[in-house]
Design goal:
15% strand, WH-like_DNA-bd_sf, seven-stranded mixed β-sheet, Nuclear Transport Factor 2, Chain: A, Rna Polymerase Sigma Factor, Chain: A, alpha+beta, transcription regulation, Sigma-70 family RNA polymerase sigma factor, transcription, Arc Repressor Mutant, subunit A, SnoaL-like, single chain, 45% helix, 14 helices
């Protein structure tokens, strides 16, 4: 069946090509997202990958699987984008209040969350024998954030080896590098990832009683604008980030200073709509218009959890709201 589809695709049958690549579309987009940290860029890279595959399918000799062939194209499209000077500009409206000096330990400014709905029904293709990360951790916002700190080759090598589980020789072939180069890039990438790790405590299971209890306490503290209660829910090494703004705060002391400084602006957001992003709890935050009472979206918040505490709180711009089906206003 696969051989027949491939031959028909080589002969110019677009429907056969679609049937050939469609089972891999979802996982390819996730791979591009991990590489680029942006759902917008991941969508663009995926479309370029599929177009390139269609234009090159006639020359595909089948010496690797279709999946591996597609991953080679997708990875190289992402590497080209990372190395180009034409990445999306980092622009955001500044907060209307003065903020304390950020921690500045390596901000990741071009970062977006990934809707859980896009993770549903992905291929059940198991990772290879070299994989070090389980799928849940490898899509987490903490993992994706840390990956963005890596140079392009280190990033690609780590994802192909430690997430997808390709062997060193296969990874070298996919990237057009020597095994020694891949091994060295991987060693440096793993060291950076280990240093960026926020906690060794696993998060509670999604939908579990432990997760619900923690989230209820967070929502109460957030909507009541209780800074002390919010800080009490965080680990000592917790992060607050606000990409694409260069505002990053590490540790409860710095986080407390930040929320104290933005209290007047923050207290306007008092309505949270639950969603999920990156396999994690998230919310669309809304604030009422003083004149009409209509609720307007003010941002999207994603929590990283560690045990019974919050290890990171990341706020995103309202531009990501449509990916989660969040309306601009609520009445």
């Amino acid at each position: 069946m696969l051989a027949d589809l491939l031959q028909r695709a080589r002969d110019g049958d677009r429907d056969a090509f679609t049937a050939l690549v469609e089972p891999h579309r979802g996982e390819l987009q996730v791979h591009c997202y991990r590489m680029l940290g942006s759902i917008q860029d991941a969508e663009d890279a995926l479309q370029e990958t599929l177009l390139s595959a269609w234009l090159g399918v006639e020359g595909f000799e089948g010496r690797s699987s279709v999946r591996t062939w597609l991953y080679r194209i997708a990875t190289n499209r992402c590497l080209n984008l990372l190395r180009s000077s034409g990445r999306r500009p980092v622009t955001a409206a500044p907060l209307p209040v003065a903020t304390p000096e950020p921690t500045r330990l390596g901000e990741v400014l071009w970062l977006q969350p990934y809707p859980d709905v896009l993770l549903e029904g992905l291929s059940d293709q198991a990772p290879g024998p070299e994989a070090r990360y389980e799928s849940r951790e490898a899509i987490s916002l903490a993992f994706v954030t840390a990956v963005q700190l890596l140079p392009p080759n280190q990033r690609a090598a780590l994802l192909l080896r430690d997430v997808l589980g390709y062997r060193a020789r296969e990874t070298a072939e996919l990237l057009g590098l020597t095994e020694d180069t891949v091994t060295n890039a991987l060693k440096r990438g793993r060291a950076t990832m280990a240093a960026a790790r926020t906690s060794d405590q696993p998060p509670p299971a999604p939908g579990s009683a432990e997760e619900r209890e923690l989230l209820d306490r967070f929502v109460a503290a957030f909507t009541e604008h209780d800074i002390d209660a919010l800080i009490a829910l965080m680990t000592d090494e917790a992060w607050v980030r606000m990409p694409p703004l260069p505002l990053e705060y590490h540790g409860t002391t710095a986080v407390h200073r930040f929320f104290s400084a933005v209290y007047t602006h923050w207290r306007e957001s008092d309505h949270l709509v639950p969603i999920r992003a990156n396999g994690q709890p998230a919310w669309g935050a809304y604030a009422p218009n003083p004149a009409t009472g209509i609720l307007h979206i003010t941002g999207v918040y994603v929590l990283d959890l560690a045990g019974d505490r919050i290890s990171a709180l990341t706020r995103f711009e309202t531009t990501v709201a449509p990916y989660f089906g969040l309306p601009r206003t609520l009445e």
